[in-house]
Design a protein that fits this description.
Distance between the termini: 11 Å
Number of helices: 15
Bound molecules: adenosine-5'-triphosphate, magnesium ion
Helix content: 25-40%
Number of strands: 22
Strand content: 15-25%
Largest sheet: 6 strands, antiparallel
Length: 478
């Protein structure tokens, strides 16, 4: 396959067609909730449509299916890693010496394991992210597995309809068969309801742990509304870590709020970056949650299993075999890995630093962070590594840079021109998985849907909320 992806339909479109289509597509997005709050002029009373790609982007069908088929194995793998204390302790022992945030998470993990974990069942909503690697026949390579606050299942489930509407408007309805169904939202919310049932108190709530200000509000609300649709008897409440610090209390190991509702499930859409813990109060609230009987999505060990350091360690020789018995599964997972290198203070780490300094354009330097915007690319790797002092580099990992093939379409953004230019873009596929269980027993393990994010080819990161990314739908090609 070449370095360029075919377009779903013949492009470019004429200015006349774009002028007619784009306002309609924007309104479709707004009226169906493919939208977000504005970062630049925030108002809780209004929405902007979420940036989207006008025509769906090509993804090789076989590769899409490979990622879908692999998700339950990835769920099982992450579940096994999260429940292997010896591995987590050993893998993160150097990282927590230099990375304060991971250390604080690890402290909570230590406290609750020493006390004895109260709620052995975890709910994990995972998203395994991939990009096609043009240097390897456009095969999908894993960017990472997210284990906390995996977003966009709600809006992505809508994008299929938005892109379908657009194709139909362009007289391309015969192409709709190439767009896979997406039930991510329903699958995820069913998982939350299974966890709620497992907790066993019908009038206890599902608590959405949210940021102080939520920009990605539609995506979160879709989860709330879907829970209400699937089971109108289950209530959802939204609270911040600060609210829990102020109003939450632990009684008989259960979380209660001052207005006296009990929490069955805590679904984290916050708590994954240092800014979410402004004071010790937020850390105390996190500890309270982990000590409680509430089912956590994710529990602390799952949060740790999603660190970049764990990802890098899993790619080292012989490591997957510790967690997966079936050699075919080991092979299948290994085939999606790209180069992952430790920056430990040893010969191996020194060699990897030299490798990065010699060819910084081939790598991405990553700290133990989530939420986008923290990685370092290309020549800045040089500056960053030379500035690091002492053992600081052990808080980071090095990853081979995936080079995705170029696709072309129009990215539609709030405030954008009436007639946008066609741009070179690259896409990133996320597959959602849900797994519920404890150390010895898995209650549910499923692949539930997908998302596609696309960015202009020159941007390093595809964060939709952060700026350069746009929501998209896969268009499967043979
Ligand atoms: N190896 C890589 N090659 C090319 N691009 C990469 C690579 N790793 C990460 N990126 C880009 O950087 C983005 C963020 O990377 P990553 O997912 O590792 O960080 P994160 O902070 O956990 O982000 P997220 O909030 O999406 O989970 C990816 O979505 C991708 O666009
Ligand atoms: Mg991430």
């Amino acid at each position: 396959m070449s370095n360029e992806m075919p377009t779903a339909i013949p492009l470019p479109l004429s200015d006349e067609v774009l002028r007619e289509l784009i306002p309609k597509a924007k309104d479709w997005a707004l009226m169906h909730g493919a939208a977000m709050r504005s970062k630049t002029s925030f108002s809780a009373d209004s929405l902007n449509f979420a940036p989207f790609v006008l025509t769906p982007s090509a993804v090789p069908r076989k590769e899409f299916q490979r990622a879908v088929d692999l998700q339950c194995v990835i769920n099982k793998l992450v579940h096994a890693v999260a429940h292997n204390r010896e591995f987590l302790v050993d893998c993160l022992k150097e990282t927590i010496k230099v990375d304060e945030f991971t250390k604080n998470l690890f402290n909570i993990y230590n406290i609750v394991t020493e006390e004895g974990i109260t709620q052995r069942t975890s709910l994990a909503i995972l998203r395994s992210d991939y990009m096609s690697h043009s240097l390897d026949n456009n095969r999908l390579k894993q960017v990472e597995v997210n284990t906390i606050a995996c977003s966009f299942a709600g809006i992505s489930s809508l994008l299929l309809q938005l892109n379908s509407f657009i194709l139909a408007e362009l007289h391309q309805a015969d192409k709709l068969a190439n767009m896979p169904e997406n039930h991510a939202l329903e699958g995820i919310c069913s998982g939350m309801l299974t966890a709620h049932r497992h907790y066993g108190v019908p009038n206890a709530v599902i608590l959405f742990l949210v940021e102080d200000t939520t920009y990605n509000i539609c995506d979160q609300r879709f989860h709330e509304f879907e829970i209400a649709r699937l089971n109108p008897r289950v209530r959802v409440k939204r609270r911040t870590l600060t609210d829990i610090a102020v109003d939450g209390r632990l009684g008989d190991k259960r979380i209660y709020f001052s207005d006296d509702f009990e929490v069955a499930v805590v679904y984290f859409r916050s708590g994954y970056e240092p800014d979410h813990y402004v004071t010790q109060g937020e850390w105390d609230a996190r500890l309270m949650i982990e000590r409680s009987l509430a089912i956590k999505c994710p529990s602390i060990q799952y949060h740790l299993a999603g660190t970049k350091k764990v990802q890098q360690e899993l790619a080292s020789p012989g490591c997957l075999e510790r967690f997966l018995d079936d050699p075919n599964e080991v092979e299948a997972v290994r085939s999606i890995f790209t180069g992952l290198y430790s920056l430990d203070m040893d010969d191996e780490g020194n060699k990897n630093v030299r490798m990065a300094l010699d060819h910084p354009e081939r790598y991405v330097l990553k700290p133990q962070r989530e939420g986008g915007g923290n990685n370092i690319y290309g020549h800045e790797i040089h500056t960053a590594l030379s500035r690091m002092r002492g053992t600081e580099r052990t808080g980071w990992i090095l990853m081979q840079r995936i080079e995705p093939p170029i696709a072309r379409s129009y990215i539609i953004r709030p405030g954008g021109p009436d007639v946008p230019e066609m741009v070179d873009m690259v896409s990133e596929l996320g597959i959602f998985g849900v797994i519920i269980g404890d150390e010895t027993n898995i209650l549910e393990n499923e692949q539930v849907g997908h998302m596609l994010r696309t960015k202009v080819a020159t941007a390093n990161e595809a964060g939709v909320a952060a700026g350069s990314g746009a929501l998209d739908s896969p268009f499967l090609i043979d």
